[in-house]
Amino acid sequence: MWTPRRILMLVIGLFAFGTAYTGYAQIFGAIDGLPNLPAKYLDAVDTPAPPIIFHESPTILRLKEAFGQNCVEIESSYPTRLELRDEGIVFAAGRPDPIDNPSRFVRLAPFSMAQFGKPKDGEVTEVTTMHGDEAIIELDKPIGNEREMLIGKAKIIGFELRATPNPTARTDPRNGRILITNNQQSNDPNKAFVFKTPGPLFYRTQDHPDVINNPNAPHIWTSAVVEIVNRENQPRPIRGSGLPSVPLNADDVLNGNILADMALGHHTPPPTITAEGMKIYLKPRNPAEVKPGAKSAGFAGIRELVLNENVEFNLWGDGQSSFFGDSQPKPPAAKGKPDANGGDPTLGLTALGGGIIDGMAAAQRLKEKSLVRIRTLGAFYYDWGKNTARFEVSPQANPLLPNNVEVTRLSPLGGRDHLVCQLLEIEFNGPISRTPNAPPKDGTKPPSSQFKNLRATGHSVYLSAETEGLQAFGTALIHETEPEKRLTRSTLRGSPLVAVRQGNRLVTGAAATQTSPAVVGQLVMESIEPPPNTKQQKTSRVEVRGVGKVDLFDEVTKTNTMTASWKESLTQLKDKVGEKECDLLVFVGDGRFTDPKTGFDLKADTLKLWLEAGQSGSKGGEPSSMESAKPARVQGIGHVEGHSEDTIIKDTDRFNAFFQDVAKPIQQEQASTTTPAPAPAAAVPPPALPTASPFLEPVVTVTVVKPKPKPMELSARQIEVRIARSPMPVKPNTKEKPGVRYEIDTARCEGRVVAHQDAAEANKPDALHIVGETLNIDHLPAGHAMKVFGTDEKLAFVQFEDTTITGPDVDINQPNNTVTVKGRGQLRMPSSTDLAGTPLNEKSEMQIDWQRGMTFKGELRSAEFIGQVQAVQLPPERKPNTAAKVAISAAPWQRSYVICHRLSVQFDRPIYFNQMKRTENAPAARTADKDKKDEAKIERVLCEPQPEEDGGGNAARPANYVYFADETIDRKTGKHVKAQRITAKFLDVQVQDTRTVINATGPGETRTLQLGSKDAQPQPAGTPPPPPNQKKEEEMKLTVVRFAERLVIEDKKQIFQKAVFTSNIRVFHIPTLELDLDVPEHLTPPRSLVLKCTDTLTTTVYQNASGTEDRRTMEAVGDARVRTDDYDGVGHIVKYDGNLITLEAYGDGQATIYQRKGTGVGREKNYKSGNPLIYNLKTGQISGNESSGGTFSK
To answer: Biased composition, Pro residues: where in the chain (predicted)?
Structure first.
């Protein structure tokens, strides 16, 4: 308590102290005990005085750092300032409302708050600010005054921000709304993340009782409209320092001009996110990080952001990437060159180039920028830790209005991409509130898209890319990236999935039916970016999983150009065919490729198609559009079948086709021609009449339509072909694109090869049929050149119309009309004549077998066979006509055969192995008779034996001889009716129009078996002759003629036959049915006639008008001898005509006939001599000039 005494003592003490100090200062104040400072350390005389520094509080500095140097938070309107350094939080607000009664709520108006992140070396500190016109602070316990809140008596557990416009704060742009910003670790305000809402906005800390009692309750929420702007993602003007502020409506982004102005920074772009209602869930804080005595729980980081409804999401991305952007890092720009996606041009370049530089920069900006807008009536969920977002449809939307999640990408240069689904899930490359400010360590640029993974699902998913002409319908779209593999993958799913691109239609999967469940189809697109600073190219891969079909259409003609289908999968990737870069399509599971316009169709278990890109093909490893592509190679694996205009593939295990472009088709189209008929020879005209006829003579024309060859059918274990592709002519004055024509150039077939070609005309035998182990085909302008290979066990088989060829190595050259066979083989061909040129009574086949080789030259009309050759005339096949009920003819059939070492055949006309040449040389009209006459006939046959040194053959039939036979066989009994055989060293058969000539070189033998009159027995004298109408008895007789040098047979068809044998001839005339009867020269069968001569033997046969034998003669010259069972005759010449035997002696000599019965003296008396001697076999009488003796008697 202050008493008067104490007050007086205080005053006296102060006065005494002041007096003492004043005296001390006056006496001792001028004394300086320190030495003078050197002059060099003294300040210059003209140096200005140092500025006066006014020290600011750390709270003010924090507010300036968060809200700006000239922020209103440091003014008097924000008297309440509080910094929580441990939490990195600073408050600035108006003075709290007076607290009359203790309360947990305090009102502050206005209110601003900033939170600072933990500082890191070399990085800008992250700052988040929050402002509201009014704030209701909620404390954990009641307080009685403002001071208790400031000293930390109560902890803040929540607040409510309100937007109540203050008329006195009109200069503050934040007036009337709640604003939250984040600098995204950048000092550039144009990269800030801004949140706006009219409020109210509520905040509850994790210590709030409501949060503790309900962990699923949001920490920050509002039901008002919210607007979020990521300024870093928005475009700005070229060299501009700030964002534009020209207002616009929400739908103005659909206007291309306005969108271009946005990309150039002339218009304010739409907010990044707008929605109605918001919820924010914070991460749970680690208790160890909360310091004791902290005044606030602060922010622990956002865990999840939820926007309630009517969400619109806008992101600016790379306009040169795909719909969802390029999620892989891009390579850096080359040294010394500007970055294609870099910043604005420098002022120096602008000054040098004028407006051109800025114009180029603006054009580049329009190419680089595109806007992706996502809209939904439902909610938006964003997981801050996983950087994933989810867009949902509204569960309570009007059923009459669309209720989908819609994604639209807009390009300033035009074109829109759309995605419509019911659920959209997105994983971003980083938080949507910031972009990493540090480039990758490998020097590459960050990805152009913020989408890392995307998943769009629903009952109906629609995708449209106008820039690529793509539309797709399905139930799911999945976009994934794997940065460590530099892989991007997009997957479309559907039941079914339908994709249409530039008129080309892809369908995979199938909808559920009453009998079968739904089949899910997938379209997977993958791309791998090459590592930076390498020469590798980007690789792409497209795969369709599930049954599907692709239809390629021509936009001009509106027709289906190509069709491909499969049952398991389709894969598209890049591959090379030679030096050409191609798209490889792999169809698995009954893959099929069809070109309806050209008739090309191919299917297999696995089908691979290499497409060569056209002029608009892709570059850099990306698959190209199949519309402008053309096949470069086709491969089929397993059960390959296909057909083109001239080839059909069947039952093949592996098929390879290589395509090459040619200017003209290999085989030109065979057009119909019109040939005027030749005019008849004009007769001598009558005298001219005074008036001419008013009519003209008609010109008669005959139109010859040449048949088109049928396609060839091929079947093998493996086929490899080279296909020529040539343009087809286009009709004049049409918009039709020129088509293409496919023709096989070469073909290589291996394993169980079968080739078949039907005849061009109906009712004709097959044009071509080939069976072998290997087949090589070369397609030439005039036909095919084919080589067929077989094995020792199974020879190759070739059939051309009625001709068949068998051998291990068959070479057919249709242009040259040649066939060559190496090794053993067989030839079968139709024949209307035998080997001797004699016409047959019905058509049959000729079969020729050989052991070494054959050469058939159809153009030269020749054929040669070598090595144990056997040529046989086969019996005709007789099949009953049950429909007409016609019995099979019982007429005998004819055959002939040749056995030799070398057989050479010459035909009367060319034989064609090519339908084209046959058609070109065909006459204008053909009839059945004409066809028969036009068939090739044998003109000459040469038979040569095997050389003596080669050996071979057997005792019964030595190989150093040739054998020729001509036989007529009874169809019922199978026995010979007539037969003729020739054995010789060499045989030459020449067939002419009116005769056939056979030349044989001996030693040799002929055998003739035919009907002849039964031998007449000598009758006693006086026996009356038989009646004239008595039928002659006939029997089969064998005539064997053996000769030493030569045989010449001349056969004048159906008129006269003559044979001349030379040198040492022996004739045996024996009644027998056996053609192969062994005839010893000295032991002949009974009733035999034996004739021998040394010079020549001439036999003649005359036929009557009906073609049957009328008369036969035989003449032997040179020491001729004749012998029967009863008589022997000797003379120089012996003649025989069937009834009479005439013996003639040489010169003045005598011919003699001996009776063989009796011996000794009696026999010597039983002879007759004369010149000539005539012995009548019927009467037994012997007559002649100057003969001696008499009648022989038994």
So the answer is: 677-686
